[in-house]
Amino acid sequence: MNNTTKELNTIKELVLHILKTNPETRSNDTLLYLECCKYLGATSLEDLSDLNLSIISVHKMRQSIQNKDKMFMPNEEALQNRKRRGYEIRQYMRKTS
Known about the structure:
The protein is mostly helical. The protein is 74% helix and 0% strand. Helix 1 (3-21) packs across helix 4 (55-68). It is globular and about 45 Å long. The relative contact order is 0.13.
């Protein structure tokens, strides 16, 4: 197993654990990222750079878990907001293309 695969498996395990134990993180990527950082021992903003954990990686892993694995789904309001936002972005991209 290469280093990238190990890293992604570790991030997935971390995100799964946080989504399972903190249901409020299922609808809020910022909160999910912060809870992951706390779990890894961050107690201040300075600690975040030492963790080597990207908010983008956490976000993408949450997307994969919810959209592909259909686990730990967000609340209905978050689903509707994400759907609406996706539609708005597609409309914008069509106008600028």
